[in-house]
Design goal:
Helices cover 28% and strands 23% of the residues. With 319 residues, it is an alpha/beta fold. It folds into 2 domains: 66 residues, no CATH class; 236 residues, Purple Acid Phosphatase, chain A, domain 2 (4-Layer Sandwich), CATH 3.60.21.10. The protein has a 6-stranded mixed sheet with strand order 1-14-2-3-4-5, covered by helices on one side. A 6-stranded mixed sheet has the order 6-7-8-9-13-12, with no helix packed on it. The radius of gyration is 23 Å and the shape is elongated. The two termini are 31 Å apart.
Length: 319
């Protein structure tokens, strides 16, 4: 975590602690005064105290929203992309990331329902599948139920690399795990290339991407956005990543409190154009395991749809 994120996180936590500590002190003082039959009710009605009450109440409301509503409000984001590399056919790629399945189901059934309405040509998953090994059946059944017309691809995130090396994650799901591998996808005589790399093999990206034909549209799957500033001279039209969860807790006008990215807030979530490569950082579906807060605030779970087609058909970012 960058030092700047540590400072922001510490400041945020201290501010919350200070609000509730002072609020508790005021209420305890008022209660003691009442027991002693001393009138101190006016102190609770003074302007600074009223501001404090409002902040404390707002914090409780925000927590309840983040815990019980923010977790399940899945957003489907559609990004049309124009490219001169396609002449007629269009491809629809649906991108999900960071499921973080737990033993108890959360959004899995809903994402299957939503994605299967999208008529995807290709579904891609950019890693972090499980928080607990016992959730493996839930993860695999979810991935198996996702429907794509042509193919389904996945890459490993840091959870798979460090926690689940020995688990069979993708057999019988229809997903192909890409690690330093490229999958050409053909539709109506036109081809795009989808390349993927495990996040424990960052040095392999140049050898992976150099053979991709320059005239073909190229999609790169990698759990982190860390390589985005290193692919300038390679044929990467669309770079898809996750990991940040959009901060999982974000503040209005500020954004993600923490991202756990080497770039900090620079690529915290959403769409970026970096040296003629389109980068999309998906906010993911699930939650970091405890002790991380089991909430989402201003960082809704996300499914991203990319409609890639010729310039004279689609509207949107141009690669």
């Amino acid at each position: 975590m960058p030092t700047s994120e540590k400072i922001v996180l510490l400041t945020f936590l201290l501010a919350i602690a200070a609000i509730y500590f002072i609020e508790a002190a005021l209420l305890i003082g008022f209660a003691i005064a009442k027991v002693r039959h001393k009138s101190k009710s006016k102190i609770l009605l003074k302007k600074p105290a009223l501001v404090l009450h409002c902040l404390a109440l707002m914090g409780i409301v925000c927590f309840l929203y983040a815990r019980f509503i923010g977790l399940s409000r899945i957003e489907v984001t559609t990004i049309p992309i124009q490219t001169a590399k396609l002449k007629a056919a269009g491809f629809r790629i649906v991108h999900i990331s960071d499921l973080h399945c737990d033993k108890k189901p959360r959004n899995e059934e809903r994402i299957v329902e939503l994605i299967n309405q999208l008529n995807a040509d290709v579904i891609v998953f950019t890693g972090d599948c499980l928080n607990i090994a016992s959730a493996l059946p839930l993860f695999k059944s979810t991935m198996k139920d996702l429907k794509a017309a042509i193919a389904k691809f996945a890459v490993k995130g840091n959870f798979e690399v460090f926690n689940w090396k020995d688990l069979d994650l993708y057999s019988n799901t229809g997903f192909e795990l890409l690690n330093a591998k490229t999958g050409p996808i053909t539709k109506n005589g036109e081809t795009i290339h989808i390349s993927g790399l495990s996040c424990d093999n960052p040095a392999g990206f140049k050898a992976l991407l150099r053979p991709v034909p320059k005239g073909d549209f190229s999609v790169f799957l990698y759990h982190f956005s860390d390589l985005i500033e290193s692919v300038e001279d390679l044929n990467v039209d669309l770079y898809l990543s996750g990991h940040t969860h959009g901060g999982q807790v974000a503040l209005p006008l500020y954004g993600a409190v923490i991202t756990l990215s080497k770039f900090g807030k620079k690529y915290e979530s959403g769409l970026y154009n970096v040296n003629d490569t389109i980068l999309y950082v998906n906010r993911g579906i699930g939650l970091e395991p405890r002790p991380a807060p089991q909430v989402r605030f201003c960082a809704r779970p996300e499914i991203t749809v990319f409609d890639i087609g010729p310039k004279n058909i689609t509207q949107g970012p141009t690669e």
